[in-house]
Design goal:
5 helices, five-stranded parallel sheet, alpha/beta
Length: 150
């Protein structure tokens, strides 16, 4: 396990390399380490209620849908809900299924005054394998991190 400073420096370096407009990008395992080392950090899970119920949840995560199932329409109240539940001064890690919606959420939060936004790379379920299945390549669950069935 690295120090918090080491982990955040690595995340920032990734953000620079990827041209991200927010503070950084972390693997699931690094995100878990950051959460252990920075007790005030918040993990914001932006998956749909259906995903949370059917696929699983992360204990202690703040759950705010980025899009709603089944229409997959963007949540017009996302930022208001985020402001209500997460202090803008907090270190905030965003998580979704595969790191795409969480990237969008981190971009919006960063542009809206959240200075310490990080995206959880690989997401909760990771990339699809050759059989088009998730949870076998990367992701929070595949890394063996804490989760429970919704």
């Amino acid at each position: 396990m690295g120090t918090l400073s080491d982990l955040l420096s690595l995340a920032h370096e990734r953000a620079d390399n990827l041209g991200l407009p927010y503070q950084g990008a972390l693997t699931p395992a690094e995100s878990w380490q950051v959460m252990q080392l920075a007790p005030g950090a918040k993990l914001v899970d932006v998956r749909t209620r259906a995903e949370l119920d059917w696929v699983g949840r992360v204990p202690g995560a703040v759950e705010i849908e980025w899009k709603s199932y089944p229409s997959m329409q963007e949540n017009p109240n996302f930022l208001a809900q985020l402001r209500h539940q997460v202090d803008p001064e907090a270190l905030v890690l965003f998580l979704c299924r595969s790191a795409a919606r969480s990237d969008s959420a981190a971009r919006l939060a960063s542009a809206s005054g959240y200075a310490n936004c990080y995206n959880v790379l690989e997401g909760f379920e990771g990339d699809r394998d050759a059989s088009n299945q998730r949870n076998r390549i990367g992701g929070w669950r595949h890394a063996g991190l804490p989760w429970y069935q919704g």
